Amino acid sequence: MEIRNIQRTGNMHYFYLPTSWCRDRKISSASKVGVSYGGDGSLIISPEITEKKPKHLKLSITEDNQDIIHKLVVASYINPASSFEIMLEKEMDFTKLLNQKRLISLESVEIDRKRITCEGPVAVSHPESLLKTMVKKIKNMMIVMEKDYDRELIERYEDEMDRSKMLIDKAVISALMYEGGTRTRIIELYYISLISKELERLVDHLIRLDRKELRFLGGIARPIELLMGIIEHPSSLNLESAMGFAKAVSRIKHIEVKSVATYDKERMKQSLIAISEVVMDWMITLKIEG
Fold it and tell me: What is the enclosing helix (H) or strand (E) of 45?
């Protein structure tokens, strides 16, 4: 590796490219080079500009199963296409398709007889903010369940959780496919994605919790509070906070599965256990990085 000094003029930082590298690649003062970011935070300078841009996606299908079409629409949405168009062989009852979970939250998706389109789906530049929003909404959702149990508001919170998780998926896929979609590092996206997945699972069972079972919420309130603190300041995640969260999760009362209600509570506990493992992994990563 060759070491070069960084120079500064005003607010601009720069260094000189190696003369031999420029000569071998026929780079002159009139040339342009490509600049991209590596997954480890490195800066990559390429002699050729190979900018990738999202493409228009066009699909034609003969399938009429609404569940399969729903999955196809969501997959098209979370991938970094500039726009997409799905043509169906025959008309279908779109009212049922629109009621599918997650689909109603997709902006810009239009359905017209045999044609499903999306122009300019939303870009995600701050997935870490979406994760913070997910944790806050779970806390607010628990407060609503404890106080007045407004079913419509609870379901609205769940829809927003699904949307946030979907947008995080979109950010991860975009970052892996194209440079510069987000400044969040790949390793951070990895942990954010794992936690958001478990939070979505937790909420899927939380909304089914009967009012008679709301005492269980007290057992998971502390772990959710600690998780919020960790997500708000991930750079300060350390051994003490990671172990504190794991201990809070371990204190959740053992649940013997005897019914649908106890199964839901056990699944929520397992999601929190999985999150505690991800938090511990994330902490070790930060420790190694120094």
Answer: strand 43-46
* pLDDT band (50, 70, 90) for residue 149: confident
Beta bridge partners of 239: none
Residue count (the chain): 290
* 279 closest CA partner among 222, 221, 240, 252: 240
C-beta separation of 152 from 250 below 8 A: no
Within a domain: 1: no
Are 134 and 168 found together in one domain?
Answer: yes
The answer to whether residues 135 and 228 touch, using CB atoms and an 8 Å cutoff, is yes
| Residue 142: other Cβ atoms inside 10 A | 20
In a domain, 113, yes or no: yes
Q: Which residues are 44's β-sheet partners?
A: 36
Number of domains in the chain: 3
Q: What is the largest CA-CA distance in the chain?
A: 76
62: nearest Cα among 39, 43, 37, 88? 88
* Pair type for strands 83-88 and 115-119: antiparallel
- Residue 28, token pair as written in the block: 């002159």
Task: Choose between 211 and 199: higher pLDDT.
Answer: 199
pLDDT of residue 101: 52
Per residue in 29-69, pLDDT (tens digit) is 777 787 766 655 677 777 765 556 778 999 999 988 888 88
In the chain the first and final C-alpha atoms are separated, in Å, by 22
Look at residue 51 and tell me if it is in a domain. no
Q: Residue 104 pLDDT > 60, yes or no?
A: no
What CATH number is attached to the domain comprising 208? 1.20.58.220
Burial class (CB in 10 A: 0-12, 13-18, 19+), 11: exposed
Sign of CA dihedral 225, 231, 232, 234: positive
Q: What is the pTM of this model?
A: 0.78
